[in-house]
Amino acid sequence: MSALTIQYHPGGVQLPRLQAWLDSRRAQPVGQRVFVSHAHTDHLGRHREVILSTGTARLMRARLGGKRHEHVLPFSEPRTFEGPTMKYEVTLLPAGHVLGSAMAWIRAGDETLLYTGDFRLRPGLAVEHCEPRSADTLIMETTFGRPEYLFPPTEEVVAAIRRFCRDALAHNATPVLFAYSLGKSQELLQHLGRAEFPVMLGEQAYALTRVYEQLGQSFPPYQKFDDARVSGHVVIGAPQGDRSDLLARLGRARTAIVSGWGLDPGCRYRYQTDAAFPLSDHADFDELLEFVRRVAPKTVYTLHGFAADFAQTLRERGVDARALSEPDQLGLPLIW
Ligand SMILES: [Zn+2]
User: How far from 5 is each of 89, 104, 200, 285, CA to CA, in Å?
Assistant: First the structure.
């Protein structure tokens, strides 16, 4: 049996022969080492022993608290770990998703595996550049794994967001951009602050931006959200939380959701906002294909989003691929 045999569990991928995990939402006990790809809450768990990048370690401490045995690996430096029956080597490579986000490149014996976590090939303003590396087996996220998900050029989306903000302010309304507090909020701060919009950040986004600064990132001026002084500012906040309370405190406001799902015509209705902008920290369909081309794997396993669709797309192009995270029909018609 291969040293890099994988086993899928909802919320994580296990490498049973190495007693290791590639992300796990469920807390893992002593004896199980967990690679944590990045600090979005859907990738974090209260594990006892973790492998992560410097940035993710710092952000995870800020978000989760508590103590755990941390193996903090600088990017691109291989580290050898002792498994139950063999040694294996882990190298973290930048994933380009949020600050500190990493892919794990693993070598055990003469086999190699690349696990992407969430990733993006397009460059961002507050994140490292993604560095794909060839591997025998690729486990990749496929959130936007359908051909209709092609993001417009970033400059175009940013120009539209700036127009939206300028227009709201000209009408004495507060522009409110709902975006993830980790990653997207910092990108928006860079894009808007550089255009000299005064920015206020929601509480979570503010706290995480401080961590980004401790990690060496620098930003245009910004303030913590304060409804008494909000007039004339752009507010960048999180999509979750007590939104109606926030909007009641703001008075006149215009709202927008900033997400890759903004490509869906119904997105702004789903999020009940005035506008939707498709700025994403994930790869779009073409980037997913480009990523596979650069890794040139023998086998691909897809995870998250349109995993089955993207696996099917790869098989049509002659790549051995299957979905891990949803039932995969392997293209066979259903027989009643
Ligand atoms: Zn993520």
Answer: 15, 15, 47, 27
Evaluate whether residue 2 is within a structural domain: no
Q: For residues 252 and 250, what is the distance between their CA atoms, to the nearest angstrom?
A: 6
Task: Tell me: do 272 and 308 sit in the same domain.
Answer: no
pTM (predicted TM-score)? 0.93
Expressed in angstroms and rounded, the spacing between residue 118 Cα and the centre of ligand 1 is: 5
Domain count, the chain: 2
CATH number at residue 250: 3.40.50.10890
Write the pLDDT tens digit of every residue in 80-110. Answer: 999 999 999 999 999 999 999 999 999 999 9
pLDDT the model gives residue 240: 54
Task: Report the separation in Å between the CA atom of 86 and the middle of ligand 1, taken as the mean of its atom positions.
Answer: 31
Residue pointed to by tokens 């007039």: 231
Q: Looking at the domain assignment, is residue 331 inside a domain?
A: no
Task: Determine the distance separating the centroid of ligand 1 and the alpha carbon of 282, expressed in angstroms.
Answer: 8
- Of the chain, the percentage scoring pLDDT greater than 70 comes to 96
- How many Å lie between the centroid of ligand 1 and the Cα of residue 40? 5
* Residue range(s) defining the domain that contains residue 183: 154-277
Residue 330 maps to a domain: no
Cα 37 to ligand 1 centroid, rounded to whole Å: 9
